[in-house]
Design goal:
The structure is a single chain. The protein has 328 residues and is an alpha/beta fold. It has two domains: 178 residues, Rossmann fold, CATH 3.40.50; 122 residues, Rossmann fold, CATH 3.40.50.1220. The chain has ten helices and 15 strands. Strand 13, helix 8 and strand 14 form a beta-alpha-beta unit. The longest helix has 15 residues. It is globular and about 60 Å long. 42% of the residues are buried. The N terminus is likely disordered.
Length: 328
């Protein structure tokens, strides 16, 4: 007979190392880290934070209630995944975690698969539910099916869909940070980091916003996109701006605003799709929104099949009128 304590003991890993993500400037942590910490605590009480930028060690120690925070001190440019993974391999030899974990963002997807190969461990991507230490669920076929995956390897790497887990509500007492020397890690990359171009806006982070206003290619010009989508977002407190891939490819919005299978996955309380037809790749990134509103002149476009509310008409007339009413 297996007692409850034995089941709990098997469920918990000795430690989970979470690779923490910073914003574009590297001065602050992104909001999805709190969701990843929630997921990590389902696997272990001993959650360790790893930062590639020493400036993030203080906010990580103050905000996330981690067991320990390690900052990597090395000469190689850790903004390149090749160098970052060499340094993380060095860290792995020092702290020996059972699980490596990161958000399923561009940052996490760039590092975790490479790190898993270097460490010779399996990698589970885009996990939306942790059932036990070896049972996980992840979406497949653009989210139209959910796969149950069993991984019996004693050590593994995981990327987490942050919108599938509630954010950490409050951290424990502040955690001390410690540097891990990785000065002997040399650059193995033939690439050179030049710069990061991101949308400069005073709006909430797209992945954690309660309201998201997304625009599609029907906006036609960047000026119309900024005026109509930005204006509507500004009329709703706490709203963020998103875009379809077609809008991004057309140059209407920067890449970091893309919502969809190849962009960011969001699950806000309210999602407003303006001039978006509803291709399956876009729907995969926003279908978990609590309420979906669609504005499109084509009454037969697929977005209306999943929308809770639909407005059929010219967005160039509807959006300004809606914006004016919301500002009253």
């Amino acid at each position: 007979m297996i007692c409850r304590q034995q089941i709990q003991k098997r469920f918990l890993a000795n430690s989970v190392a979470v690779l923490l993500e910073g914003n574009g400037s590297g001065d602050a942590l992104t909001g999805n880290n709190k969701n990843v910490i929630t997921a990590a605590r389902k696997m272990s009480d001993n959650v360790i934070g790893i930062v590639l930028n020493k400036r993030l060690s203080k906010p990580a120690g103050e905000q996330l209630g981690l067991s320990k925070v390690f900052a990597i001190n090395g000469k190689a440019d850790l903004r390149l995944s090749e160098n970052a993974c060499e340094a993380l391999k060095h860290v792995d030899g020092k702290i020996k975690p059972d699980v490596w974990m990161a958000a399923h963002s561009a940052f996490g997807k760039n590092i975790m698969p490479r790190l898993s190969v270097m460490l010779g461990i399996p990698c589970l991507s885009d996990v939306i539910e942790i059932e036990s230490d070896n049972q996980f669920k992840r979406p497949i076929y653009a989210g139209n099916a959910i796969a149950s995956v069993q991984c019996d390897a004693p050590k593994k790497a995981i990327t987490i869909r942050s919108t599938a887990f509630e954010p950490l509500t409050s951290g424990d007492k502040p955690t001390e940070s410690e540097e891990i020397e990785a000065a002997d890690v040399n650059s193995t990359s033939q690439s050179e980091y030049l710069k990061l171009e991101s949308a400069e806006q005073a709006r909430p982070e797209l992945g954690s916003a309660r309201v998201v206003i997304s625009g599609g290619r029907a906006l036609k010009t960047k000026e119309d996109f900024d005026r109509l989508i930005g204006g509507l977002a500004d009329s709703i407190p706490g709203a963020a701006v998103g875009a379809s891939r077609a809008a991004v490819d057309a140059g209407l919005a920067p890449n970091d605003l893309q919502v969809g299978q190849t962009g960011k996955v969001v699950a806000p309380a309210l999602y407003i799709a303006v001039g978006i037809s509803g291709a399956i790749q876009h729907v995969a990134g926003m279908k978990d929104a609590k309420v979906i509103v669609a504005i499109n002149k084509d009454a037969d476009c697929p977005i209306f099949q999943i929308a809770d509310y639909g407005l059929v008409g010219d967005l160039f007339k509807i959006v300004p009128e809606l914006t004016d009413k919301l500002r009253v």
